[in-house]
């Protein structure tokens, strides 16, 4: 567990208060970061804090200001901002419980692990966790972190709980504006059956470790090739991408059938080929020539 919690406070449910600590549940993945370089000298470019008519200034002289009118600012000290009294800075009060399915996926923003702050808080923590699990509900409340108050959800996760910050309603675009032009019609049943069969064929458990950032891998390869060639310009061939983007599926039924057939062919290719029948059995199945049949009795008389 990290040495320092992202937030410390208490969860309050009616008259019950549970001291907890919150830790970020995610981390930044592998990324390729670039710096701006002055090509003639090969040196990185730096940026300075500059005031119009004055020039570069010291960062200690910088304050936060809110523009109330054109060119007029109200200046605030950081201590003044930190001193703003808000109950949710130290307390997450659960004010409502809803089914998880009622919260649209668009509202979820970032997850955090929630753990009891000490041994004394464990009993109440476990009771709340199991009550949420048994009722299949998600707790809702508001919480202030790092200069902002969030709407948050709380739900069980293994032995602990997960808190997720949610976006406010005015931060989410209305889907109708984007989906309005999509026809409201039922698909052909045969097409739907084929699509469902294809989905079922490709269904399986979610294994996140199977996925990785291929763009980052490609950039690393490009950087290594660039270094090996001494800075020679390298341009990847994008012909295949352009051709695939320009293709158009005319017959959806044929495309779905072909997808199913290709999957079945791949499965059959993995099966061992059936063993061939011995040649001797084929020869035995042929009728004996008439002359040979007539000679056999004569041989038995000589014996």
Question: What is the compact description of this entry?
Answer:
The protein is an alpha+beta fold and 303 residues long. Helices cover 32% and strands 25% of the residues.
Which second-level CATH architecture of the domain at 7-26 and 85-175 applies? Beta Barrel
**Alpha-carbon distance between the two ends:** 96 Å
CATH class of the domain at 7-26 and 85-175: Mainly Beta
Q: What kind of sheet is the major sheet?
A: 8 strands, mixed
- Outline: extended
Number of helices: 9
Total strands: the figure is 14
Work out the radius of gyration.
35 Å
The secondary-structure element order is EEEEEEEEHEEEHEEEHHHHHHH
For the structure shown, list the relevant keywords.
25% strand, 8-stranded mixed β-sheet, 303 residues, alpha+beta, 14 strands, two-stranded antiparallel ribbon, 32% helix
Written description of the protein model:
With 303 residues, the protein is an alpha+beta fold. The protein has a domain at 7-26 and 85-175: Beta Barrel (Ku70, Chain: A, Domain 2). It is built from 9 helices and 14 strands. The protein has helices spanning 78-82, 122-135, 176-179, 189-201, 214-228, 239-246, 252-270, 279-285, 290-302, and strands at residues 7-13, 16-24, 37-38, 43-44, 50-51, 55-56, 64-69, 72-76, 91-93, 96-99, 108-116, 137-145, 148-157, 160-166. The strands form 4 sheets. The chain has an 8-stranded mixed sheet. A two-stranded antiparallel ribbon has the order 3-4. A two-stranded antiparallel ribbon has the order 5-6. Helix 4 (189-201) packs parallel to helix 7. The protein is extended. Residues 242-247 and 280-303 have low confidence and may be disordered. Residues 260-303 are annotated as: Disordered. Residues 288-297 have a biased composition (Basic and acidic residues). Belongs to the prokaryotic Ku family.
């Amino acid at each position: 567990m990290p040495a320092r919690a992202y937030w410390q406070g208490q969860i309050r449910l009616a008259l019950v208060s549970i001291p907890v600590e919150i830790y970020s549940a995610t981390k930044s993945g592998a990324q390729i970061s670039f710096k701006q370089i002055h090509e003639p000298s090969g040196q990185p470019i730096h940026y300075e804090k500059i005031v119009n008519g004055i020039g570069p200034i010291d960062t200690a002289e910088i304050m936060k200001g809110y523009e109330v009118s054109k060119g007029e600012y109200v200046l605030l000290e950081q201590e003044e901002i930190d001193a703003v009294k808000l109950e949710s800075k130290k307390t997450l009060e659960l004010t409502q419980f809803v089914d998880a399915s009622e919260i649209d996926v668009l509202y979820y923003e970032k997850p955090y692990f929630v753990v009891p702050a000490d041994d004394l808080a464990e009993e109440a923590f476990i009771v709340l966790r199991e009550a949420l699990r048994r009722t299949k509900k998600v707790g809702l409340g508001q919480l202030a972190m790092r200069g902002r108050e969030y709407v948050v959800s709380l739900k069980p996760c293994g032995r602990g709980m997960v808190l997720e910050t949610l976006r406010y309603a005015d931060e989410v675009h209305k889907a109708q504006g984007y989906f309005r032009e999509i026809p409201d019609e039922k698909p052909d049943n045969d097409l739907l059956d084929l699509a469902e069969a294809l989905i079922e064929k490709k269904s399986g458990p979610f294994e996140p470790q199977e996925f990785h950032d291929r763009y980052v891998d490609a950039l690393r390869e490009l950087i290594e090739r660039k270094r090996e060639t001494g800075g020679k310009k390298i341009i990847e061939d994008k012909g295949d991408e352009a051709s695939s983007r320009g293709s158009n599926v005319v017959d959806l039924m044929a495309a779905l059938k072909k997808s199913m057939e290709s999957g079945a062919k791949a499965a059959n290719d993995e099966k061992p080929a059936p063993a061939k029948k011995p040649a001797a059995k084929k020869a035995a199945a042929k009728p004996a020539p008439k002359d040979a049949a007539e000679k056999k009795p004569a041989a038995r008389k000589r014996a």
